[in-house]
């Protein structure tokens, strides 16, 4: 067995101001890389992004290349056109496979130029990035949420078939896979027939995400953390709030996250019901700003239609906030109804639970304390990192 000295993270997403905006996977990779460094492991990140840049990020070496579709207009045009014409699908697939081979060539050259001895590579499931890895290097796929799952289980539209094709090929080759929840395990076994995946729950820094007694609670406030979109349940949040507003005229609704301008339902209903002065949009925020805002919330909504596993939910629970979540498998894996949070199906139940929480301070306190305890015991960052390192060592 080799010693674990140098880990490489191959990714489309890495959270840093010098790179493009990312989702949860990019934030996860940033945290994972820095925690591995703290454990004495050298970490390099090879990112396929929209710009070419290299920098040090608190001991993590980050090297980003511009993707082949961003560099080659003709190839991007062919990729787009072939994805829309049925009989050109084989060519569409070949273009995506060509992209992965091009990335592999650049990655191998970079490793060779720097004379690196990489012990293990971690990558994500979406887009089949594992196809870029030389199979002589041990690697693991962590299942953050593939395009295949988004399309087939969560009914996302207009998903590129080239992306899902590469995901299928990548999982056919992969021997080492990490799933981040039991729901993730079931769904990936169903769509990719993966075997013997290791369950490692995502973890958060419970020393950073913690209750803040210095900030005063904004009475009768409902906060929402996540992209403001139909998929994340923004319409449901507005629908519930319209009912809440009738019972509690002083109540307010606060959205933290990127606003999807194509979802006209939200703005139309705000204007139609004349509640502009009671609904606030803060946009995307840094984690320090999120902590400051959420610390003022009386309750927090998570009305998403589908999640693989929600770090945002864990962060809010760690801050000791009562949460109301939609009735989906991944939330039920975390929330025990009426013990550490509330589960709701549809607008009416979100409203009824909100009314109950606003009227019952003892219930709010009990749910808040249990929420924090759940995250500290089961989803702490240190536990996740140690489980990850142990699995890495098994693989190499």
Automatic annotation (TrEMBL):
Keyword flag Transmembrane: no
Annotated InterPro entries: Glyco_trans_1, Glyco_trans_4-like_N, Glycosyltransferase_grp1
EC number: 2.4.1.11
Ranges for domain Glycosyltransferase subfamily 4-like N-terminal: 22-207
UniProt keyword list: Glycosyltransferase, Transferase
Pfam assignment, any one: Glyco_transf_4
Origin species: Chryseobacterium salivictor
Protein name as catalogued: Glycogen synthase
UniProt domain Glycosyl transferase family: residue ranges: 221-373
GO molecular function, one term: alpha-1,4-glucan glucosyltransferase (UDP-glucose donor) activity
Domain of life the protein comes from: Bacteria
PANTHER family in alphabetical order: SULFOQUINOVOSYL TRANSFERASE SQD2
EC supergroup of this enzyme: transferase
UniProt entry tagged with the keyword NADP: no
């Amino acid at each position: 067995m080799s010693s674990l000295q140098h880990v490489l993270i191959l990714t489309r997403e890495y959270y840093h101001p010098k790179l493009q905006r990312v989702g949860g996977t990019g934030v996860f990779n940033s945290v994972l890389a820095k925690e591995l460094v703290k454990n004495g492991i050298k970490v390099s990140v090879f990112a396929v992004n929209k710009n070419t840049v290299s920098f040090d990020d608190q001991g993590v070496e980050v090297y980003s290349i511009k993707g082949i579709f961003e560099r080659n207009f003709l190839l991007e045009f062919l990729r787009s056109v072939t994805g829309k014409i049925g009989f050109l699908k084989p060519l569409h697939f070949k273009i995506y496979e060509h992209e992965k081979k091009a990335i592999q060539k650049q990655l191998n050259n970079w490793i060779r130029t720097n004379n690196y001895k990489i012990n293990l590579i971690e990558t994500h499931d979406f887009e089949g990035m594992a196809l870029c890895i030389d199979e002589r290097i041990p690697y693991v796929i962590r299942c953050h949420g593939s395009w295949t799952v988004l399309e087939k289980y969560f009914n996302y539209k207009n998903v590129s078939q080239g992306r899902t094709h590469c995901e299928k090929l990548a999982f056919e080759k992969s021997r080492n896979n990490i799933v981040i929840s039991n729901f993730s395990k079931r769904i990936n076994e169903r769509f990719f027939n993966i075997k013997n995946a290791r369950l490692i729950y995502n973890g958060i820094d419970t020393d950073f995400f913690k209750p803040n007694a210095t900030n005063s609670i904004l009475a009768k406030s409902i906060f929402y953390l996540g992209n403001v979109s139909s998929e994340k349940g923004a319409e449901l949040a507005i629908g519930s709030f319209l009912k809440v507003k009738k019972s509690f005229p002083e109540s307010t609704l606060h959205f933290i996250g990127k606003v999807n301008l194509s979802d006209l339902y939200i703005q139309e209903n705000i204007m139609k019901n004349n509640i502009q002065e009671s609904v606030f949009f803060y946009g995307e925020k840094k984690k320090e700003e999120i902590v400051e805002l959420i610390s003022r919330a009386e309750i927090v909504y998570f009305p998403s239609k589908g999640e693989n596993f929600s770090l945002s939910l864990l962060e809010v629970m760690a801050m000791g906030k009562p949460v109301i979540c939609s009735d989906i498998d991944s939330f039920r894996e975390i929330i025990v109804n009426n013990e550490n949070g509330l589960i709701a199906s549809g607008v009416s139940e979100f409203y009824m639970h909100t009314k109950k929480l606003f009227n019952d301070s003892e219930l709010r306190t009990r749910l808040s304390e249990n929420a924090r305890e759940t995250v500290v015991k089961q989803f702490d960052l240190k536990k996740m990192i140690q489980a990850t390192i142990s699995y890495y060592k098994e693989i190499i």
